[in-house]
Design brief:
Length: 300
């Protein structure tokens, strides 16, 4: 059962209250692919510029990710994003977004990718997400992630996309912004009426909500004291979730529920280092160890 992830690959510049790092490997597709690859082989589609270094792609290949769908635009520049975390390490400010080659990205899926059964439209332009859906041949599950920038500048496209996907992932403030509701539960339920079969609302260090017609779940964040850089937590959550679902090969409520727990575990690992550094230290066994700790912490 193939798993396709389409999104951004980036050079990030990150400021936290204690440290800053320039031009490190980031992007929604990067985090999501590395997270998903703990569970299932991943095919990734993204675009980079002539400034891309081969060593970055090799880091993904080492995780078993098929990078043949990363297009290189030689005379363009890779997408750059810069963010600054406030003292609480939960809220952040975007300092700079340079879309560069991501601005004109028109993904062309190779034939073998078009047949993917599980698809994550990681955070990126809604127009690009539509173009991916247009090319898919019979997917079983399509999940889209989005953010405030796209809610603002591609609002109508996003409303249209919501009718073409199975699941929507977004954070709390974005769910409220998209629905005009002040309460997370009300916002989540309203989003359900707008197209998707399920909605996941992420609340950073406070975990995530899952809303579907049949059930509502909550999953806490996996507790960590070692918070280094929250960047990529959301993408890692979505990637791990879909990776786990693809590994099981069904979308039963029980599978989805477990996938949320895996999402929380892998997201917590992502924040324990800059870029994908800490994720690179883990393997499926260490993820499973954390899963059994998580089970103990959450059973009552
Ligand atoms: P997260 O912390 O999970 O929201 O994801 C952060 C990652 O998303 C960073 O590595 C950025 O490079 C990437 N990113 C930030 N803004 C955008 C955007 N407008 N479109 C696509 N990716 C983005």
């Amino acid at each position: 059962m193939s798993l396709l992830i389409v999104g951004s690959v980036a050079f990030d510049t990150i400021e936290t209250p204690t440290t800053s790092r320039d031009n490190i490997l980031g992007g929604s597709a990067t985090f999501a692919s590395v997270a998903a690859a703990f569970f299932h082989p991943v095919q990734v589609v993204a675009v980079v510029g002539g400034d891309w270094e081969k060593s970055h792609t090799q880091r993904l290949e080492k995780r078993g990710i098929d990078v043949s769908g990363i297009e290189i635009v030689k005379d363009g520049k890779t997408f750059r994003w810069s963010g600054k975390y406030l003292e609480n390490m939960n809220d952040r400010e975007t300092l700079d977004t340079q879309l560069n080659v991501l601005g004109d990205f028109q993904p062309k899926l190779p034939d073998k990718f078009r047949r993917a059964k599980y698809v994550l439209l990681a955070n990126g332009s809604t127009k690009t997400q539509h173009e991916v859906v247009d090319q898919l041949l019979g997917p079983e599950l399509v999940i889209a992630d989005t953010m405030n920038l796209w809610i603002n500048i591609e609002h109508d496209e996003l409303l249209r996309l919501m009718k073409r996907i199975d699941g929507l992932v977004l954070n709390d403030s974005e769910a409220k912004m998209l629905t005009g509701e002040a309460n997370t539960v009300t916002a989540g339920r309203k989003l359900l009426t707008m197209g998707p079969k399920f909605v996941i609302v992420k609340k950073g260090e406070h975990g995530a909500f899952f809303f579907a017609e049949y059930e509502t779940y909550i999953v806490p964040a996996f507790p960590t004291e070692n918070l280094v850089d929250p960047t990529g937590a959301g993408d890692s959550f979505a990637g791990a979730m879909l990776g786990y679902i693809a590994s099981v090969g069904n979308t039963d409520p029980e599978t989805i529920k477990r996938s949320l727990a895996y999402g929380a575990i892998v997201a917590a690992a992502a924040v324990e280092g800059f870029s994908i550094e800490q994720l690179e230290q883990l393997n499926r066994d260490t993820v499973e160890q954390r899963m059994s700790e998580f089970r103990k912490m959450t059973s009552f």
